[in-house]
Design goal:
Blueprint: H1 9-19, H2 22-33, H3 44-52, H4 63-88, H5 90-97, H6 100-104, H7 109-122, H8 126-129, H9 141-146, H10 151-179, H11 185-216
Helix pairs in contact: 2-4, 3-4, 3-10, 4-10, 10-11
Length: 221
């Protein structure tokens, strides 16, 4: 469940298509990447669609700009989680996860445990791979902040992971701009959302396979 599920997804989607610009892409991607659950799938694909179709002929957006602005928003949102975790500390993070307010924000101890265990297992590179995994994407910044990960390294790995994911979403918007009419856009994004989720898992598995291979391959003397 996400924040979008609390109100009419189609209504929001229609509003965003009618009002999309770089500022809204940035703001909603900050929200998506912070502790407030909000799907990037309803932001980047329609923005890229408008940038590449006749429906967005009056827009000054382009697909590269959408991708970069979305990535910047994702980084800012990730920094919110990082610094909240850094300043508040682990005990308070877990206390919040166990609270009614935490549950209202769709955060619980199991999700924080999952994100922290993932970070402990895979190290700093998890901030890259984690950006590609649903349910981990927003929360991976919390253990990075708790563990006081180097902020420059955090920014680099987070930006790269967000760039890969947003490029996938923008590519979907570009492809839909060539194949569907605006009235069909919401239904098509909903249809492909499941495939995007599996694509995220597949990319993450490929990255993890490479990391493990690199870690355990025979070393030359």
């Amino acid at each position: 469940m996400t924040l979008l599920a609390l109100f009419d997804a189609a209504q929001f989607f229609g509003w965003f298509v009618d009002n999309a610009n770089y500022w809204f892409v940035f703001i909603f991607m900050v929200i998506e990447s912070s502790f407030i659950p909000f799907p990037s799938e309803v932001i980047v694909p329609p923005a890229a669609y408008l940038a590449c179709s006749n429906a967005g002929a009056g827009s000054d957006m382009n697909v590269i700009g959408v991708t970069l602005i979305a990535t910047l928003g994702a980084l800012v949102g990730a920094f919110i989680n990082y610094y909240l975790a850094l300043w508040i500390g682990r005990p308070v993070v877990y206390k919040f996860a166990d609270s009614r307010l935490g549950h209202a924000c769709l955060i619980d101890r199991a999700k924080v445990d999952k994100a922290e265990a993932y970070f402990d297992k895979h190290g700093a590179v998890s901030t890259f791979v984690g950006r590609l995994i649903p349910a981990i994407r927003q929360l991976i910044s919390i253990p990075a902040g708790i563990s006081r990960m180097n902020v420059v390294k955090f920014a680099i790995f987070t930006s790269l992971g967000a760039l890969v994911w947003n490029s996938i979403l923008a590519a979907l918007g570009y492809w839909l701009a060539q194949t569907v009419e605006p009235a069909q856009l919401f239904d098509k994004v909903e249809e492909y959302n499941r495939y995007l989720t599996w694509a995220g898992y597949a990319l993450a598995l490929l990255c993890l396979a490479y990391i493990l291979w690199n870690a355990f391959k025979p070393r030359k003397n």
